[in-house]
Design goal:
The protein has about 160 residues and is mainly beta. It folds into 2 domains: about 90 residues, Chitinase A, domain 3 (Roll), CATH 3.10.50.40; about 50 residues, Thrombin, subunit H (Beta Barrel). The protein contains 2 helices and 9 strands, in the order βββαββββββα.
Length: about 160
């Protein structure tokens, strides 16, 4: 069966930056399982997987525009240290849930200068092209319930 809309797909992947640095990998772990055609994975990867079959192994270069998008400078803000009440030591790299311009999101601390903390509300991979090494492990027709729910169920998927 080929990967197409409303198929339940399981893949192994290794994700790298253009310089070869590994960002994430499912190798030696659980497969990534998703419902194809519903936007559950980044658009460029979904497009690269379309039409593939079980056993296919390939690489895909995904431009930033089809991954996590561009960097928006207005999502980088300097806020008062007081915004982190209850956190004794705010450090670069820490992430917090916050209301960002698009609604609830995650901000990453990118600088701490006395009482000023600079946070970045962009996705950590925004502005970056991404490279995937993919192996298609399984493809099956999604159940009607999975299609209605917009995600797959069972092993590797969503459990209710």
């Amino acid at each position: 069966m080929q990967i197409s809309n409303n198929t339940a797909v399981s893949i192994h992947y290794t994700l790298t930056k253009d310089d070869g640095e590994v960002i994430d990998s499912s190798i030696d772990g659980e497969v990534l399982s998703y419902l194809h055609g519903t936007g559950n994975i980044i658009a460029g990867l979904e497009k690269a997987l379309d039409g593939k079959n079980v056993g296919d192994k390939f690489t895909a270069h995904i431009p930033a525009s089809e991954a996590y998008g561009q960097i928006f400078e207005d999502r980088v803000q300097v806020v008062s240290r007081e915004m982190f009440d209850g956190i004794d030591n705010v450090e670069v790299g820490m992430q917090f849930h916050a209301d960002v311009s698009e609604g609830p999101g995650i901000v990453t601390v990118i600088a701490v200068d006395g009482e000023n903390v600079t946070v970045d509300g962009n996705h950590p991979l925004a502005g970056m092209p991404l490279n995937f090494e993919i192996e298609v492990i399984d493809v099956r027709a999604a159940t009607q319930e999975e299609i209605e729910h917009g995600h797959i169920h069972g092993a590797g998927g969503h459990h209710h």
